[in-house]
């Protein structure tokens, strides 16, 4: 590759003479940000660039925020640790302050949100999370992360998406930050010590232990051995893209496989402890985050109803693959704090499900303060 990028043929494709470079039928595109935007725009149906012009603008805002407000100080901090550039105490102090400022902005934004833009992963999440991969692995340790719980929750959600893991792999979060040579602020200073290198080379290699075989999810087995006539992803697309949700519900009832799927209502067992609206809404967001293991097998809407100063209630309606709620409880232990009631399919149930999934202002006599969709 190094030889190729110095060739005249390659230099003719990009004025920078370096990668990344994307070749298309119409010509070449250079710079990673431009390439990412181009690829996201190729498939507007995925929602990667937002579902509206406004959301697209928000995606652009976070991409620019990452480039100008976050990545520069992160590079100043990380580069000396990995041997790119020399340690400078004043520059490091300024970089740490700037990183804290940037993370606080993201933290404030994510307190009541699952993703940076809209209700799904977008290019904004991909770009910002990618910029934070090495920092979370090397420098953003437990102590530094304490004020940024929402950022950590969001980051873990994004990097654990199968598509993200396929490219980046596992991203373990560092316990104690590494430091550059010359930085004595941390006992884990990175030193180029020849004796340590020699010791490592002469160390007795450990025997490879076989990795435990990955256990297949019971619902994945059900999908394989007894496939349903209903396509759950098709329903999620219908719900997301249909302007009139009443039309989406018509599609749902026409395609519902009552043998392969079941409907459930859930009510939080400790609604009497809900005192602050923002904390309750945040708790529901966390609940959905911890339900990630059911992403392929469930759809649901969780509502926070009521008003601060009076009763605040968490309630929801879910569609599960199979006929049990046990897989939800296994995926998310917090589900044990809810009472789950299996719905019998009749006209009253249909009306109630539609109210949970379609209403925006009121649910069963209570005002809807916040509604979150798991899809």
Automatic annotation (TrEMBL):
Residues 187-216 are annotated as: Disordered. The keyword Magnesium does not apply. Residues 1-47 form the GST N-terminal domain. Transmembrane segments: none annotated. InterPro entries: EF-GSTs, EF1B_G_C, EF1B_G_C_sf, Glutathione-S-Trfase_C-like, Glutathione-S-Trfase_C_sf, Glutathione_S-Trfase, Glutathione_S-Trfase_N, GST_C. SMART domains: EF1G (SM01183). It holds the Pfam family GST_N. GO terms for molecular function: translation elongation factor activity. Keywords: Elongation factor, Protein biosynthesis. It comes from the Eukaryota. Belongs to the GST superfamily. This is Elongation factor 1-gamma.
């Amino acid at each position: 590759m190094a030889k190729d990028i110095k060739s005249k043929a390659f230099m003719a494709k990009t004025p920078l003479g370096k990668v990344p470079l994307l070749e298309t039928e119409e010509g070449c595109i250079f710079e990673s940000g431009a390439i990412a935007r181009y690829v996201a725009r190729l498939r507007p149906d995925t929602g990667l660039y937002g579902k509206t012009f406004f959301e697209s603008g928000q995606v652009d805002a976070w991409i620019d925020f990452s480039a100008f407000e976050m990545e520069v100080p992160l590079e100043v901090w990380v580069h000396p640790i990995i041997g790119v550039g020399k340690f400078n105490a004043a520059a490091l102090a300024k970089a740490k302050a700037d990183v804290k400022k940037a993370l606080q902005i993201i933290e404030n934004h994510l307190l009541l949100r699952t993703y940076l833009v809209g209700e799904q992963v977008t290019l904004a999440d991909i770009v910002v999370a990618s910029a934070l991969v090495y920092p979370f692995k090397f420098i953003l340790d437990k102590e530094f992360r304490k004020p940024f719980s929402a950022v950590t929750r969001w980051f873990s959600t994004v990097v654990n998406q199968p598509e993200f893991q396929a490219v980046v792999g596992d991203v373990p979060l560092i316990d104690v930050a590494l430091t550059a040579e010359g930085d004595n602020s941390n006992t884990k200073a990175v030193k180029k010590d020849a004796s340590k290198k020699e010791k490592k080379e002469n160390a007795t290699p450990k025997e490879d232990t076989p990795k435990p075989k990955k256990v297949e999810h019971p619902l994945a087995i059900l999908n394989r051995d007894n496939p349903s006539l209903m396509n759950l992803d098709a329903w999620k697309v219908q719900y997301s893209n249909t302007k009139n949700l009443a039309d989406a519900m018509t599609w749902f009832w026409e395609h519902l496989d009552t043998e392969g799927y079941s409907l459930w209502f859930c009510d939080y067992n400790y609604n009497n402890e809900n005192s602050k609206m923002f904390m309750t809404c945040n708790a529901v967001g966390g609940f959905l985050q911890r339900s990630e293991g059911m992403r392929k097998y469930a759809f649901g809407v969780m509502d926070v109803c009521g008003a601060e100063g009076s009763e605040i209630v968490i309630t929801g309606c879910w569609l599960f693959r199979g006929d049990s709620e046990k897989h939800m409880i296994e995926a998310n232990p917090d589900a044990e704090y809810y009472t789950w009631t299996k719905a019998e399919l009749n006209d009253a149930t249909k009306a109630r499900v539609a109210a949970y999934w379609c209403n925006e202002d009121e649910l069963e006599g209570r005002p809807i303060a916040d509604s979150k969709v798991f899809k």
